[in-house]
Amino acid sequence: MARLAKLLATPIVRAGLGRVGLAAGIALSAIWLTTTLTEDAFARTMVALSLIATGSIGGVFGSNRVLLRDLASVEVPSSRSAEIVGAALRSATKTAFLAALITTLAVGIILDEWSLLVLASTAAASIAGSALYFESDGFRANRGGWIPEVTFGRYGGALPVWLWVITLIALRPSTPGAVLGLLALVSMIVAVPLLVKLLRSTGISSTGQTSSLRDAAPFGITQLTGLILQSADLWVGALLLDTKPLAFYAAARQFLMVVALPLQAAQLAFVAPLARTAATGSAEDLQRIATRAVQRAAPPAIVAGLILLAVPRQLLQLVFPDGYDTAALALVILVGGQIFNALTGLCGQALSMSGHERIVTRANLIAAASLPVLAAGGATAFGIEGLALAVAATTLGLFGSLWWLARHHLGIETHLRLALS
To answer: Is 135 found in the same domain as 79?
Structure first.
């Protein structure tokens, strides 16, 4: 038991379990909603949820990472920590309300949904999500144990997501407004007391300048474009396709988390070694770390991907109601792109941790601008399979470019190889 407790106390294990818990909760919520909502309601709910997730990360727009960086470098609590928290909170408050407004308008326009419950729930869930991003990084800088790991990520992390899942199962809401309202409620229930706890532990001061938008922008753009790349195909589909095939496509996308999780875990485990090696080591040392990372992450991702490629229709039939297996071909296309992502390894992280974060930001911006255009063309020509082709093409273009940029700027190759060189 002592060894288990020690293992669970390590940051990497906590972070990994937090990500797995979040992914499992999101997947279970989607599975449950397909059994309680009509196909039209499910599609509209998934689009709204993707917009809320994007609005939440846009709401902090990098101020959470500035808070993490600055707060980790000072004594907590102290007058300086209070100034850092106060400045970051003022910045985050402004962007959070602006992002919530934009998100609410986007839900209304894309879904042509203007009911008060849907719009109010969207705004509240977006603000609560932004608050939880902010709080989790504040607690991470302050060595907050499990709190940052269960409150970081989509919809506020694993803790509010699992509370939401419990309420979904207990109350069985049958409309998008009710589903979103429950998410907003549980997110606020978690966010408000945690904000009070953070401010009590760090202090807050009205003195000190607001965190510079220029300082936070690289973090914010990278985080925001990452969410756009995960969701823009759904938004385009909502504008151009019928809700029934879009519901099937939205459900099939949930399987991608199985392929993505190993790479996400590797990012958590190897981002610090990459940063240290980039600062003090040679290109050969950086190559060694990058190769070890992809050797840990790619094999389980490839195994999961191959299973999905082998029996996509059967898995969709096993997990979702009748009819959802029609998205099998779209799932195969999406999985192909994710496998390529796993094979290229931590090319983006290697660049970012080596002082080339602006290159990564530009690559992400180009990909995020390209995806809606490709998705619109694909959806018009081939339906949900066209959406999947657009996502796969964007994935290949982005991570192929980042792999080449890492090779060009760092002199390393981050792809999977059989042995350490």
So the answer is: yes
Residues of the domain holding 64: 14-211
CA distance 316 to 249: 11
How far is the first Cα of the chain from the last one, in angstroms, to the nearest whole number?
38
CB-based contacts of 280, cutoff 8 Å, min separation 6: none
The answer to whether the CB of 330 falls within 8 A of the CB of 388 is yes
Residues 6+ apart with CB under 8 A from 286: 274, 277, 278, 350, 354, 410, 412
d(CA 314, CA 266): 29
Residue 349 and residue 12: Cα distance in Å, rounded? Answer: 16
Q: Which of 211, 231, 252 is the last residue of a domain?
A: 211
Higher pLDDT residue, 130 or 81? 130
pLDDT digits (tens, 9 = 90+) for 153-182: 899 999 999 999 999 999 999 999 999 999
The answer to whether 387 touches 236, Cβ cutoff 8 Å, is yes
Same structural domain, 127 and 259: no
Structurally, how many domains does the chain consist of?
Answer: 2
